[in-house]
Amino acid sequence: MGRGSPIPPMLRRKIVEQYQKGVSQRKIAKSLKISSSTVHNIIQRFRESGTISVRKGQGRKTILDARDLRALRRHCITYRNATVMEITTWAQEYFQKTLSVNTIHRAIRRCRLKLYSSTAQQVPPSLRVRVTPADHLVCMFRFGRGFTPDALPGKTLPFYPGLGPALRVNPSMSGLAPCPDQGQTSSSSYKRHLSTTSNSQTPNSTMAKTKELSKDTRNKIVDLHQAGKTESAIGKQLGVKKSTVGAIIRKWKTYKTTDNLPRSGAPRKISPRGVKMITRTVSKNPRTTRGDLVNDLQRAGTKVTKATISNTLRRQGLKSCSARRVPLLKPVHVRARLKFAREHLDDPEEDWENVIWSDETKIELFGKNSTCRVWRRKNAELHPKHTIPTVKHGGGNIMLWGCFSAKGPGRLIRVKERMNGAMYREILSKNLLPSARALKMKCGWVFQHDNDPKHTARATKEWLRKKHFKALEWPSQSPDLNPIENLWR
């Protein structure tokens, strides 16, 4: 949403006058056809300061301070033929800050330096003058953009406005000479520079990183060195700098290889002490967010991003995962579950294949419930710190009853009304025995259901006994032990 234009002083004065007359803010906004929030802000400013003028903002905070600007100016004067992109690359490495080309462009102008193109406009040779790049920089630093040759003491020259980068004058007025006629260059070769012409550019004055030599070229350098040739001869033969040849030979003598060695990479933003601090924090409270850790480190003097926090914790073996939902267990439930596990620890696999598992489930109409992410290590998903206790609740869902065994799924029934003991026995009478016949269960099969009050009612138990259905004893609050939970997913 774009920022609106400022309200004119006359309109602000009308707002204040109507407010002093007792007109409400909503009526003022409706009569002047502006938003109520704007009217409120103007009236509130008038109450606080007694004026209707627009406050002067303090502006954005500059990325580069005075010390950085001095370093940038020294670099621009030293590498006067460098492009803005090359200066930006150097500044990001030197200042350890994320800088854009536009930011560097504005910073150069704040240094009282000016950027010129390397292409000369079509100007008569008699009007062109040649100056050294250093003198030109001094000229722009001393006189700024308002300098004209007429302002120089002692000598006067005709000033031709609009000639752009074709006319450059030395403030000392020494060394004036006509430039050779180079003709008009194509616009595709346009390049931003800190020098007067592209003729002053030398190969050693550029900042761009040279292309890495291929492995074959490096091996040729080593072979020629073993053949007895000097570094200068090798460089001339292969068209490589002598310093590059010497570096490759020294690397081969030290490591017996010309391949790229493993690099150390960028230094860690978080110190080892900071790593221990955030690891200890998430171990005590796994629900700590990345934003909380970023704020903690910022208060300690280290500014990092959320991605850095994730990478650091991942190197410590911690990963952000969704917290598992588990039943809320009381001590009595824990003892019952442990007893059940010990009783059936040695049961053969055939016994479990002869069990019909059943349960009710609800399908959320509006998607899954919200999740919570925790920091945990591998195989620690069921630790109490890494789980979310749940209890049964309803609303916004449909209820289903189903059963299955090791041989396949049984019948699935939708429960349209609120289930009670009579409805549950009716569902079993119509669907349990047909499901057992369809699954071809063996004689003596066992029926499993949980300890819901409808299941453990006296009438339900009596009905199961009359039908000669054997029920499996089941511990309370143990839906995670029922394999049908995997079927619902």
UniProtKB/TrEMBL annotation:
<feature type="domain" description="Paired">
    <location>
        <begin position="1"/>
        <end position="111"/>
    </location>
</feature>
<dbReference type="GO" id="GO:0015074">
    <property type="term" value="P:DNA integration"/>
</dbReference>
<dbReference type="Pfam" id="PF01498">
    <property type="entry name" value="HTH_Tnp_Tc3_2"/>
</dbReference>
<dbReference type="Pfam" id="PF13384">
    <property type="entry name" value="HTH_23"/>
</dbReference>
<dbReference type="GO" id="GO:0003677">
    <property type="term" value="F:DNA binding"/>
</dbReference>
<dbReference type="GO" id="GO:0006313">
    <property type="term" value="P:DNA transposition"/>
</dbReference>
<dbReference type="InterPro" id="IPR002492">
    <property type="entry name" value="Transposase_Tc1-like"/>
</dbReference>
<dbReference type="InterPro" id="IPR001523">
    <property type="entry name" value="Paired_dom"/>
</dbReference>
<dbReference type="InterPro" id="IPR036397">
    <property type="entry name" value="RNaseH_sf"/>
</dbReference>
<dbReference type="Pfam" id="PF25787">
    <property type="entry name" value="HTH_SB"/>
</dbReference>
<dbReference type="InterPro" id="IPR009057">
    <property type="entry name" value="Homeodomain-like_sf"/>
</dbReference>
<dbReference type="GO" id="GO:0006355">
    <property type="term" value="P:regulation of DNA-templated transcription"/>
</dbReference>
<dbReference type="InterPro" id="IPR038717">
    <property type="entry name" value="Tc1-like_DDE_dom"/>
</dbReference>
<dbReference type="InterPro" id="IPR057667">
    <property type="entry name" value="HTH_SB"/>
</dbReference>
<feature type="region of interest" description="Disordered">
    <location>
        <begin position="173"/>
        <end position="216"/>
    </location>
</feature>
<keyword id="KW-0563">Paired box</keyword>
<protein>
    <recommendedName>
        <fullName>Paired domain-containing protein</fullName>
    </recommendedName>
</protein>
<dbReference type="InterPro" id="IPR052338">
    <property type="entry name" value="Transposase_5"/>
</dbReference>
<feature type="compositionally biased region" description="Low complexity">
    <location>
        <begin position="195"/>
        <end position="206"/>
    </location>
</feature>
<dbReference type="InterPro" id="IPR036388">
    <property type="entry name" value="WH-like_DNA-bd_sf"/>
</dbReference>
<dbReference type="Pfam" id="PF13358">
    <property type="entry name" value="DDE_3"/>
</dbReference>
